[in-house]
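Revision sheet: structure tokens.
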Amino acid sequence: MQENLEAEQQDQDSSQSPELKSVAKGFNIVLVGLSGSGKSSTGWHLAKSLGFGFIDLDEWIAKSSGRKIEDIFRVDKEQGFRALEIKALTELRQVKNHVIATGGGIASSDEAWGMAKGLGVVVWLDTTIAEMARRLASKDQAKGRPLIAGAIEGVEAPRKVEMIEKELTSQLAVRKARLEKAHIALTLTFVPPDIAGQLIHSVLKKGGFLRPGRP
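Predicted:
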């Protein structure tokens, strides 16, 4: 299987960036990207390699609200979920030394995006639309992702990938301008989560983010 790994730091080299140096003190690593980009699975591996804690933002919201994400969307619609997302981001301001995997819609608004960037070093998993759609169309991966699930409701299996690609393309058009402002961008194609975690670890180490004593 083809593997393509590419990492780039946005705007300027991390070793020269005062903003990045400031967030790296007692920092978190915040993974962003569209649904299916691999934030949760990659984040778990990255946290393990760093000795950090791991938080999945959607799971945090579900646990704190006592409801499944799909139920929140069904009853309170997306607006209600985004309000809970802001609440969760506020609660996470006290957290340090964690990898935080955000939901795919974190870049939907300036408010949520600004709060996410305030939590630490933001890493965009820029996975291709085709690869994300392939993942989401298999093994019921759309479950728990209401916007994706809605896009393929009633759609025959052969057309699911096509409809997911269409939905992701629409989402990216709204969110890309914010995602491009991540501190680090990682372009990934057919990369297993453990390898992606290793790559992020390497970029953080090379950029001088890791404190002395960190592996």
